[in-house]
């Protein structure tokens, strides 16, 4: 990196500011007044939507170049991992099982 | 409810909720540290970045852009766009932080990530969670992130890639948290729509807008369907 340390610090400060603002503004503004019920209903669906939006490309698509791929080991492992989560509802157990199965597919495939 | 727990119980439960996040951050942080080192950023430099920014995907992009000699303005703009999704998460968390003081909120907001959001929302919804344990989750995840990026910068090349299937830790965690969030037909509908939208957007549009577009679109679709059904019942 050809950048001087002071310039690098300035960059980090600016990156930190634009990252912090969207994290802070909603909790600061929305926690001070009662929210309308429609907004609460809408926000209630946000976690499930965000999780699914994060997961789907990781399971179903290659990243470089971006392309649909229905044969990823990530997807193969997701099946039993999801069943285990439904059955046990154990977060730690699901993470460890997923890791183990993924490691296993790496050995086999 | 907040005062019924001892400090040590609070720490134990907070850290107990945070460990899958920390485990998942380990391979990501080490990978970032290795890349940063290759881009000419020293361990102090990457540690400071993890501390001041604390946003995984934005940091990967920033390191790649620094390596290719991008301008400060371009890197900051990319960071803003990638992290815009936190606006949604912060809004959803606000429902559980009613009337909390500005000092706590300022500290809490720093640690809102995809992972801490998913863990804390699941716990808050179960009813047995408070803002202090949520804050411990945020800060433990931050500590793990800073440490693993610095560790990657120091000794990353010694660790074999893909060891122990650890690359699957965050996917496994998200899968389980998704299961926890599926409370009925509207949530299932929203999840399916979001997955389809996300993949479509991921393939069609370069960049990271797919999370925000899919989440807003799917939550709105689920919301409208819910409204429609409720009205029909009346």
TrEMBL record, chain A:
The chain crosses the membrane at residues 40-61, 82-104. Keywords: Membrane, Transmembrane, Transmembrane helix. InterPro entries: Brnchd-chn_aa_trnsp_AzlD (IPR008407). This is Branched-chain amino acid transport protein. It comes from Desulfuromonas soudanensis.
């Amino acid at each position: 990196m050809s950048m001087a340390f002071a310039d690098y610090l300035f960059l980090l400060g600016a990156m930190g500011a634009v990252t912090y603002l969207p994290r802070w503004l909603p909790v600061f503004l929305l926690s001070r007044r009662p929210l309308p019920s429609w907004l609460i209903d809408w926000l209630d669906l946000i976690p499930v939507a965000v999780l699914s939006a994060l997961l789907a490309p990781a399971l179903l698509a290659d990243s470089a170049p971006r392309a649909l791929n229905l044969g990823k080991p990530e997807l193969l492992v997701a099946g039993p991992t999801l069943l285990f989560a439904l059955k046990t509802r154990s977060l730690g157990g699901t993470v460890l099982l997923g890791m183990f199965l993924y490691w296993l597919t790496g050995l086999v495939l | 409810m907040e005062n019924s727990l001892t400090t040590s119980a609070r720490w134990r439960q907070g850290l107990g909720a945070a460990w899958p996040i920390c485990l998942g951050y380990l391979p990501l942080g080490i990978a970032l540290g290795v890349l940063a080192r290759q881009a000419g950023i020293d361990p102090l430099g990457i540690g400071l970045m993890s501390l001041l920014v604390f946003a995984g995907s934005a940091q990967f992009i920033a390191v790649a852009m620094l390596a290719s000699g991008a301008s400060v303005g371009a890197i900051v703009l990319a960071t803003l766009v990638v992290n815009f999704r936190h606006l949604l998460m912060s809004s959803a968390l606000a429902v559980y932080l009613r009337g909390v003081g500005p000092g706590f909120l300022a500290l809490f907001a720093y640690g809102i990530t995809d992972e801490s959001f998913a863990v804390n929302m699941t716990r808050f919804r179960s009813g047995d969670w408070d803002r202090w344990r949520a804050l411990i989750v945020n800060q433990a995840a931050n500590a793990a992130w800073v440490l693993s990026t610095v560790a990657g910068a120091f000794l990353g090349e010694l660790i074999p890639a893909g060891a122990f299937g650890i690359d699957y830790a965050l996917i496994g965690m998200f899968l389980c948290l998704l299961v926890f969030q599926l409370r009925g037909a509207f949530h299932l509908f929203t999840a399916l729509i979001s997955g389809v939208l996300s993949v479509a957007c991921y393939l069609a549009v370069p960049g990271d807008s797919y999370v925000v577009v899919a989440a807003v679109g799917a939550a709105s679709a689920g919301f409208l369907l819910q409204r429609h059904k409720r009205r029909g019942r009346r």
